[in-house]
Amino acid sequence: MREKEIIAHLESLLTPHRRALFKKVLKQRTNHFTVATQDIFQLHNTSAVIRSCEVFGVQNIHVIEERKTKNIQREIAMGAQKWIDVNRYDSSADCIKVLKEKGYQIVATTPKGESTELQDFPIEKPSAIFFGTEKEGLSDEIIAQADVKLKIPMYGFTESLNISVSAAIILQDLTSRLRQSEINWKLDEKEKTNLYYKWLKKTIKNSEGLIAQYK
After folding, report:
1. How many domains does the chain contain in total?
2. Domain membership flag for residue 25
3. Per residue in 147-175, pLDDT tens?
């Protein structure tokens, strides 16, 4: 009950337009699909993938930093990191373990071998889409543990795309098909309440002080 009262108090500080926008976006958020990136050294690429996740309503991204720690570039993420959850891992094994425990199938994006083409990829199962670097791709460890391999059909001489472009293409396709399906892809009420509360705290200046004062 206390949390509901605090949410109502913070909510009262927003404009009606802002409240309506929050609730509109919440209705389009999903955890049915999630994204994981492995050692993407180019900071602008990591930031661009975060932005794509936010644009297409994917609430969580999982960033594996085995070899290099990243600082999300705010000017490229365009504030997207404020609205989605960025989960960080020191190893691919830890990331895969967490995602499998959450019920996700592991999907490795790779143009090589027997990979399912994007338009043929079934969307019914909750899936974690893994992306590697344009030059090296995903590690053998992730490829070996993948339940499914996925590729974007290509018809030219070039055999790979920049990760940020690949992520945008794949997320646009999968989330569009998801929203046209009868799959239960939306956040549940508890998830929406928790996320709404988090957004309120990030949006309202000195929210922690206001909450303490209210209590």
Report:
1. 2
2. no
3. 999 999 988 888 778 889 999 999 999 99
